[in-house]
Write a structure and sequence with these properties.
The complex is a heterodimer of chains A (632) and B (482). Chain A has 632 residues and is mostly helical. Chain A contains 27 helices and two strands. In chain A, strands 1-2 form a two-stranded antiparallel ribbon. In chain A, β1 and β2 form a beta hairpin. Chain B is globular. The chains are: A mainly alpha (632), B mainly alpha (482).
């Protein structure tokens, strides 16, 4: 399996989607085995491609830029040539591994979790389409294909968030997610068009090369970069577009794990990583990314602290993580961002699937009605704890290495470093909170606690696998580990974009951040386990702050008011115009006019032959007069 | 003209063969018993196919018969075109003639003979030859239109067609005489030579001549205001003859117009260009708007074909190499589409006896294949992409716009949009209206199914790979502008 064969990857799940959509009802088990089989094959193929990549890396050394394979799709001679193709480099390999592995885990998990769902076959069809689109997004060598895939994952996200379509809240959430991300997508589309007009190509590498050669005007480049970033912000739920992600938790939990934790939401991070050279060409470009990332990280950590829905807490922790990745990109450390993305995929998927296991067992997802589940669900409890502590950043878990790598990269920027450090104990605290309130203490609803039990192997095997990876995935940062596993240059070579020695470890930062993590965990333990009265006291003292956090900084209300007042009033105007001017006057009026004209004209057809002959004579005379006038 | 006339009769072999075929059909009709008469359409179609194959021998050859007729790629194109059309019409007629008409021998013989007239209209390089060819075609059609002689409408349509046709012929002849008077010749090349150089002078006789020639030929192609015979003749004629009228009669008129105006009247382009443009505009608008008011499928198609004539006249108004090849392409696509539509309509009429638009309800359930093919044909006529009509119209409109007649193109596009409405009305009956109780699936003869499928494939072929046909059309019209 060569790198240039990577175009095969999206085709398999796409074929599964077609088969499931057309034949689903007639297939045994509604065809879920087709979807799982397709993604399992894809995973194996990705491993083979990764092996091929490391071989090529060993053979060519550091100047190896990746492999590309494209084919002509459409040509307007002299004006436009569209090529579609794949580009495989280190970043792609990381993403492919993450997408295919998490998708495989989630699809296996869904065999248990979604069992008995009324739209089981459709669920697997859409998941397959999503995986196909996500793989295409990752592999795309040009902006156009990337944009198609970008929109397709958005559509799949919409369909899956609204999977429980009998729930109004799910439908609303799906709509909200789609529209909010669309706002960013429009920016991305405009950016793509601007860059195409400036460079004449959609190919990402060629666009970057052209921009670096100074072929793109400064204003155009600035505008394109900002618009491009809008797209990334929408998809990756950055402030102020983040509002859709917590609501997206209305979807089935495996979907949250796959789309809203591990893959689709990091598409924005991936896009910025791919186009980072463009940002660095623009004055203030990296600073923009850094500022948005920091703001998002901090705000989401505060909101995570007060949410009571287990999935929403994890959703805010995802926004928190995504913010951190942008922070890393903002200070020009894509390797750190990719390492975080890589490890985050595992522990965040683990957290979601763990939460799913709890929801599956208790049918509750509010922490105020859970508690004490550790004795009933030990596997879920342990694996969830591993995930939560990794998210918090406790040493030797995967999240620790990745988070510290970002903090090290921030050392030159004191203010940013301070703010990032400040979110570390907050993160630890809310992760401790959700862990304690869910699994420890007394059960708040004894009845549902009574019936709670571990799910089927489909559910807990992926949990265990992901937990193992959460413990060990961080070690890939060390060359020796990779060499032991048989990769000539170590896996770090892949993660670090061919610079195996880019991993920085700073004992001071490590000790400092670990101390903060421990402090945060301790504070969480103190507040929610040791002295359960503390939160109440704090609440009464800090009521306005709590209200601010719990109401999500009132952003949803502000948006709603803006939509009601501004958007809807404009929409009403447009609707009125459409109904009266376009439809009644333009379309209907035009139609009636044409019909009436036809009605009048049909009387020339009298059926009487003298009239016909007279018509011909009049025609001859009239034409002669016309010709006479024109000529004479 | 050169003093030595080329009297090489071998150039006319295909037409001799056609005449022989017509004689053979008449003889068979006389001497075989009634049972065998059902074979006549197949004899006619097979004979036409054989002569068609024979005529391919003149591809890329260029010669003339006494300066009167040209045998070149243009003629060969139309030989193939008219013989193929006649063969399809013969096949479509098979059941209809057997069920509804008498005297099949004369019917098929006239069909074959009319083809000769149509071919010579395309081949003529001299006005009187062109006129005689036109009359040969017309006389066959006069008879064919009134062939259902026990039906009042058929007689009415045929009579109107014949009397008005005679009137139009008189106008045409008068026009020809005026052209002869001003130029001193009836040969296209000599007329062009006589007018060459001096175009500014005002010449009333020439103008009148041009207007009358246009009126006479306008009658043939059904251009407004010389179109009034069309709805009556279309409605009255036996259905296959309606199809034939809309295909061969019309295309032959354009074949003549194209060669005449490019060969003889190019030097006086300024005199007639605006007249033709005005005719085109009137024809498109009236044909399409009045079609909105029709309830009978034959009258609907009559008016829609008048609308189509408007589009085709644009190509004459904006005469150039590009518009000519686009015209040939469009006419080919149009005829294939129209034959597909008529094949379905004839089959439906044979099965149910209905030719009102409301009579097509339930077609989707009762004859799904015919319903799908008719829908494809109607979409093609309105110019939907993927179907022949889209690309051929696109090429035609673009070529016309390139010649500076953007305003005509705008009218044409708007009228295409109008046409979509009345085609959709039929499609709505086919697919949306449910059949009445107790109406079952109908058996469609295998021949008709095969023909429908073949023609529908043709519709898609022209729509998806128009390049192939366009190359042929360009090859055929190249010599007109050499």
């Amino acid at each position: 399996m060569n790198m240039t064969d990577a175009w095969l990857l999206p085709l398999l799940p796409a074929a599964a989607f077609v088969a499931l959509t057309l034949l689903g009802p007639w297939l045994p088990r509604k065809g879920d085995w087709l979807a799982v089989g397709a993604i399992a094959t894809v995973f194996v193929m990705v491993l083979l491609i990764a092996a091929d990549f490391t071989d090529a890396l060993a053979a060519h050394g550091e100047e190896f830029a990746g492999a590309a394979n494209s084919t002509q799709w459409l040509e307007v001679p002299g004006q436009l040539e569209l090529r579609l193709g794949v580009h495989v480099d280190a970043t792609t390999i990381v993403m492919l591994t993450v997408v295919s592995f998490v998708a495989l885990m989630v699809q296996v998990y869904s065999l248990g979790y979604m069992k008995g769902d009324s739209r089981y076959g459709w669920y697997y069809a859409v998941i397959s389409l999503f995986v196909a689109s996500m793989l295409a997004l990752v592999l795309a060598d040009n902006f156009l294909l990337l944009y198609f895939a970008w929109e397709l994952v958005g559509v799949c996200s919409y369909l899956l968030i609204g999977h429980y379509n009998h729930l109004r809240s799910a439908a609303e959430a799906a709509k909200k997610a789609f529209i909010t991300t669309r706002l960013g997508d429009v920016g991305l589309l405009i950016a793509i068009i601007l860059l195409w007009r400036a460079t004449g190509t959609f190919n990402i590498q060629e666009v970057i090369a052209a921009a670096e050669a100074g072929e793109v005007g400064r204003e155009v480049l600035t505008a394109s970069v900002v618009l491009l970033f809008l797209g990334a912000m929408g998809k990756s739920a950055q402030f102020p577009f983040h509002v859709w992600l917590p609501d997206a938790m209305e979807g089935p939990t495996p979907v949250s794990a796959l789309i809203h934790a591990a893959t689709m939401v990091v598409a924005g991070v991936y896009l910025v990583t791919r186009t980072l050279p463009l940002f660095q060409l623009v004055h203030g470009g990296p600073e923009l990314i850094l500022a948005v990332g920091l703001l998002t990280t901090f705000m989401s950590a505060t909101m995570g602290l007060v949410m009571t829905d287990i999935k929403k807490v994890i959703a805010y922790s995802t926004i928190n993580s995504l913010g951190l990745m942008f922070v890393a990109l903002g200070v020009g450390a894509p390797a750190a961002a990719m390492l975080y993305l890589f490890t985050h995929a595992f522990f965040k998927a683990l957290l979601f699937l763990g939460a799913g296991s709890v929801i599956h067992a208790t049918e509750r997802q509010d922490v105020s009605s859970l508690g004490g589940l550790w004795s009933k669900m030990p596997i879920t409890c342990v694996t969830f704890a591993v995930g939560a502590l990794s998210m918090a950043g406790l040493p030797i878990l995967a999240g620790f290495w990745a988070k510290d790598e970002i903090l090290v990269a921030l050392l030159d920027n004191k203010a940013a470093f301070a703010l990032a450090m400040a979110t570390v104990p907050l993160t630890a605290m809310y992760m401790a909170r959700v862990l304690i309130l869910t699994f420890f203490g007394d059960p708040k609803e004894p009845e549902s606690h009574e019936h709670a039990h571990e799910g089927s192997p489909f559910i807990f095997v992926p949990l265990v696998l992901l937990a193992v990876l959460t413990v060990f995935a961080g070690f890939v940062a060390f060359d020796q580990v990779g060499e032991l596993m048989g990769f000539p240059g170590g896996i770090g070579e892949i993660i670090f974009l061919g610079h195996p020695h880019a991993f920085h470890f700073d004992w001071n930062v490590a000790i400092g951040s670990s101390a903060l993590v421990l402090a945060g965990l301790a504070a969480g333990w103190f507040a929610w386990a040791a002295r359960p009265s503390v939160p109440g006291v704090c609440l009464s003292m800090l009521r306005p702050v709590h209200a601010l956090f719990a109401n999500k900084y009132y952003l949803d209300d502000i948006y709603q008011a803006a939509i009601d007042r501004v958007v809807l009033s404009i929409a009403r105007l447009v609707a009125w115009f459409d109904r009266n001017a376009v439809n009644d006057t333009g379309i209907d009026g035009g139609g009636y006019t044409a019909k009436f004209a036809g009605y009048l004209m049909k009387f020339q057809q009298t059926g009487k032959m003298p009239n016909y002959a007279l018509g011909m004579v009049i025609g001859v005379v009239a034409l002669t007069l016309v010709a006479f006038t024109l000529k004479g | 003209m050169s003093s030595e006339l080329n009297l090489d009769y071998s150039l006319l072999t295909p037409e001799f063969c056609l005449a022989g075929l017509a004689a053979l059909i008449l003889a068979l009709d006389l001497f075989v018993d009634d049972f065998r008469k059902s074979w006549l359409p197949y004899v006619a179609a097979a004979g036409l196919a054989a002569v068609l194959a024979l005529s391919l021998g003149w591809v890329n050859k260029e010669s003339d018969f006494a300066g009167l007729l040209s045998v070149d790629n243009y003629t060969t194109f139309f030989r193939v075109f008219f013989m193929a059309t006649a063969a399809v019409v013969a096949l479509v007629s098979a059941q209809f003639v057997q069920d509804k008409l008498r005297h099949p021998g004369e019917y098929y013989a006239l069909l074959v003979l009319s083809t000769i007239g149509a071919i010579y209209m395309a081949a003529s390089r001299e006005l009187l030859t062109a006129y005689i060819s036109l009359e040969l075609l017309s006389f066959c059609l006069f008879v064919l239109v009134s062939y259902a002689k026990h039906e009042r409408r058929s007689n009415e349509g045929g009579l109107k067609y014949m009397l008005l046709g005679a009137f139009a012929s008189a106008i045409l002849l008068y026009g020809i005489s005026m052209i002869y008077g001003t130029s001193g010749s009836t040969f296209y090349a000599d007329i062009a030579a006589a007018y060459a150089g001096d175009t500014s002078a005002f010449d009333l006789a020439l103008l009148l001549g041009l207007v009358m020639v246009l009126a006479g030929l306008g009658f043939k192609v059904a251009a407004v205001p010389f179109h009034m015979w069309t709805p009556d003749a279309y409605e009255g004629a036996p259905l296959p003859i309606t199809a034939y009228l809309s295909a061969t009669s019309k295309v032959a008129g354009f074949a003549l117009l194209l060669r005449l105006f490019s060969g003889a009247f190019m030097p006086v382009l300024d005199d007639w260009q605006w007249i033709v443009a005005a005719l085109a505009a009137m024809t498109m608008v009236l044909g399409n708007l009045v079609a909105l008011q029709q309830h009978n499928i034959k009258r609907l198609l009559a008016y829609s074909s008048i609308g189509q004539v408007g589009y085709m006249l644009m190509a004459i108004a904006a005469l150039s190499a590009a518009t000519s090849s686009a015209l040939l392409l469009h006419m080919t696509g149009y005829v294939i589409t129209n034959l597909a539509a008529f094949t379905c309509i004839i089959a439906w009429y044979n099965l149910t006896g209905r030719d009102e638009i409301s009579g097509f309800r339930g077609m989707a359930e009762r004859t799904p294949l015919l319903a799908a093919a008719l829908t494809a044909a109607l979409f093609s006529l309105s110019g939907m992409p993927l179907f022949a009509g889209f690309f051929t119209k696109f090429m035609l409109f673009q070529a016309v716009a390139d010649e500076g007649f953007l305003w005509l193109t705008v009218i044409a596009v708007v009228m295409s949009f109008v046409s979509l409405y009345y085609y959709l009305l039929v499609i709505r009956e086919i697919y949306v209206s449910k059949p009445e109780e107790g109406e079952e699936r109908l058996p469609v003869p295998a021949l008709i199914s095969g023909l429908t499928v073949a023609l529908t494939i043709g519709v898609f072929y022209v729509g998806i790979f128009p390049r192939h046909l366009l190359d042929v059309a360009e090859e055929a019209t190249k010599l007109l502008f050499a």
